[in-house]
Recover the amino acids of this structure.
């Protein structure tokens, strides 16, 4: 299959950038709002996911400049162009926060893989976006494990 042209690659990168930024905003909101038994572990995990997304956004925007494109730079443009919607961050439980984050990361990964399948990216960019996908997958493994083992550890007097 022939590679798509540079304009298509730039469009794909901008949509990816917008989506990464919206997911990062959603995750940071969850980071701020998480509470309860799992506060510490989820607060730190959401922060790690957010940092991974910020690094990914930076890589995508830099790649856009290297290939002669202009990355989206405004929040309104990110929200308008993202394939994931801005989460209103209403008061929800920790389990739902984890689920939403995991689902958004899965959509983001599928978006990356779809761009690769459609041959939107040159070989170097393809490698870079797949590295982003791999880093996000690492977080999904933790989030999936968290959902599978949702019960908090219970202190037992027999442990004394």
């Amino acid at each position: 299959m022939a590679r798509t042209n540079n304009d298509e690659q730039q469009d794909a990168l901008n949509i990816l950038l917008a989506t990464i930024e919206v997911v990062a905003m959603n995750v940071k909101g969850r980071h701020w709002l998480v509470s309860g038994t799992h506060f510490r572990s989820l607060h730190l995990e959401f922060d790690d996911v957010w940092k991974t997304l910020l690094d990914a956004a930076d890589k995508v925007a830099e790649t856009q400049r290297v290939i002669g494109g202009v990355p989206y730079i405004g929040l309104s443009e990110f929200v308008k162009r993202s394939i994931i919607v801005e989460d209103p961050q209403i008061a929800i439980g920790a389990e739902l926060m984890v689920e939403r984050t995991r689902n958004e990361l899965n959509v983001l990964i599928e978006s990356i893989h779809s761009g690769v399948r459609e041959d939107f990216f040159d070989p170097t960019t393809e490698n870079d976006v797949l590295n982003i996908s791999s880093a996000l997958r690492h977080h999904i493994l933790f989030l999936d494990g968290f959902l599978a083992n949702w019960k908090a550890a219970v202190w037992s007097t027999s442990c004394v």
Helices lie at 6-33, 39-66, 75-81, 94-117, 123-148. The mean pLDDT is 90. Residues 6-33 form the longest helix (28 residues). The radius of gyration is 18 Å.
